[in-house]
Amino acid sequence: KLNVGVDTVQRGVEGLTYLLTESSKLMISETEFQDSIHVLGFSDELNKLLLQLYLDNRKEIRSILGELAPKLPSYHNLEWRLDVQLASRSLRQQVKPAVTMKLHLNQNEDQIAQVLQTDPSTLLHLIQQLEQALGEMKTNHCRRIVRNMK
User: Fold this and answer.
1) Number of domains, the chain
2) What residues have CB less than 8 Å from 5, skipping those under 6 apart?
């Protein structure tokens, strides 16, 4: 009925979907949306229709995107224990420390537990990496990225 190829229609639908989802994710204002679609070179009438489509559906699109987001487990509690092996049958004097952690997580209103075991040097390295990642989040570049993700 449109007298165009299937690929053209498919690319048009995908482009429109991308435009609406990204605009809804960022919750851009009317003027920002108009500036974004003005660059595409559409007629004023089509720009007004796209703006109205965006304004009518952005809340619904955001709710659908929220439902599609993966539900990750969240921290509830941590139990830990330090075990040290001082000797064995073959070695009378040795020191072999191990840190055992039981991580309790909430996932979909259920509690699950993960047991992890590591040596202290690996645990210290992990702590350093996490502190470095937290420090990285304080940079202006990361703040800008996080602000755009909301």
Assistant:
1) 3
2) none
Tell me the per-residue pLDDT of 73-103, one tens digit each, with 9 for 90 and over: 999 999 999 999 888 888 888 889 999 999 9
Same domain, 124 and 143: yes
**Residue appearing with tokens 């996080």:** 146
Residues 128 and 106 both lie in one domain: no
- Distances in whole angstroms, Cα of residue 131 to Cα of each of 41, 56, 105: 48, 43, 21
Q: The domain containing residue 12 runs over which residues?
A: 6-68
pTM attached to this predicted model: 0.50
